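WARN retry 2 of 3 for item q-0093 after timeout on previous attempt; input resubmitted unchanged.
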Amino acid sequence: MNANSLRIALGLTYLLGTSLSLHAAEQPKQGGSLTWGVETEPSPFNPQLNGQSKAEVVLRSVWESLLARQPDGRFVPWLAERFEASEDGKSYRFTLRRDVTFSTGEKLNANAVAENFRHTQDAAYCAGSSLCAMGNRIASIETPDEQTLVITLKQAYSPFLSFAASLEILSPCSWHSTQLKSGGKEIAGTGPFILESYEKGQQVTFVKNPNYNWAPATAKHQGPAYLDRITYRFLPESSVRTGALLSGQVDVIEGISGNDAGEFKENEDFSYQHALNTGTPYSLFLNVEYGATQDVKVRQALLQGLDIDPILTSVYRGERTRAWGITSPIDPLYNNDLEGKYGNQPDEANKLLDEAGWQTRDGQGFRSKNGERLSIEVIQAQATVRDQRDVLLQAIQAQARQRLGVELKLRYVDSGTYTEVRNTGKFGSIANSNTETDGIDIENHYRPVKAGGSINYSRVNSPEINTWLDQAADTADLTQRRQLYSELQRYALPQQALAVPLYEPEDQIAAARYVHGVGFRSFKQMPENAYDVWLSDH
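OK item q-0093 returned
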């Protein structure tokens, strides 16, 4: 077993052992209020337009999906009691539960769900998100009766069920609200909690939905939530979250730095859990259409010359897992062929840069050519700066200068500027990760921008990659899909160096000992909402 596999196994063992051992004999209790310190403030509060994976712990309190997923990825009933897929992979039939209502009192029926899917076809609504890419694949949306929804695609696309099953459903009245894009009380869901108040930059509070009685099969209980109220406080700094839990200002936190993990791991006053996410690892995606990274030798020099392991050890104190591929090692589509096969080869990297013509050095030691410095601007969206990624990027910046003579210029931007930069394509690299499953994360990053690659930050448009993606999308056979994505991986990384994988995103939860039921969503392994959480006396 390699180091990554061992860490994953130990992490999951620790997670399960912790959650099962604490107060195992106690029975869940009703009532009480919980305060949870979270790293990310949702922006916006519309779950369909929110691209922040870390915000899901908050958003899933209110909005739910047609199906849930077991740890092995199998789909199980939620708002839909069953589903069927046609043999040709083009048609999906969902039969909805009859007992579900939105918090507004509106009934969940086929027309209500259909309207959500129709909006994925509305460019004015979903522009800039991956929703439109999925909506463009839909040929028709039919409602044969009140409980049945039939979605037919223009052509077979095997990841579509993953999207359709997980789209968070908004109430019918939402589509007529002025809050539709931003989110708010008027954007209702079917979830176990109801939005009570929101203080921008501070906190959001939810109260129990007393009528809730349709939890998915993956939940630990049925009926309304145990808690009466939950408040999520927005605490973007890891040290502040840790201090708030240790001092009793909050009851639970998520997003724990490597430096702070030791505060909870061996402390009997707290529980501590961690688990890797699915999806694409946090990576530097290198733009093939602009600046110095247009040259494959420059891109290969970065991939081969950087030594990521000691940086991760220094920044995270051994609490994060090195990334090697295009998707997470817990993903069924993962292939470990590239583990340990590239990187930490500064001599080879410097030779590549010499061959690319960057042979001279300026007064500060940076490589230059024709009087121009070898400078690559790395864009990071401020909204997704988390988990000490700013510190990580600074360490990589320093190593690139010292080892390779390459200047990495770090630029943190707001959401508006981020969209503008992406649209213009004038950047050297964008740092990003993505938790989508079933190859959707790979599609998002490697499809041409105009063909649905909503976060194709390398801006690649390769006939080889497009063929592999098409073939993988056309089959539901997991073995075939894994093989096709493996070929794509070998081409995208060691051959074309479209990205420099850094580390596998993971989530951590620490809670006071009187807090029970906190844990991770099955399959994606991200912090689950507080539906199953209850409090013992303290």
